[in-house]
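Hi U.,

Before I forget, here's the chain from the pilot set. I'm dumping it here mostly so it's searchable later in email.
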Amino acid sequence: MASDLSDVRFLTVAEVAEMMRVSNMTVYRLVHSGELPAVRFGRSFRIPESAVAAAIETPSSQVG
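Structure:
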């Protein structure tokens, strides 16, 4: 299991917001709603890069 985690790259909320071209608050909303998986480290969240890639590639049913 430890070797599995060493392969995962975690991103900050700000990095995810920049990649997705949305605000930090939008990323927090996605995390809190469960649409974007995240791990909490202290008071901050880290999002697996693979989850961000999947969210970007998956067409959204909500527009606007």
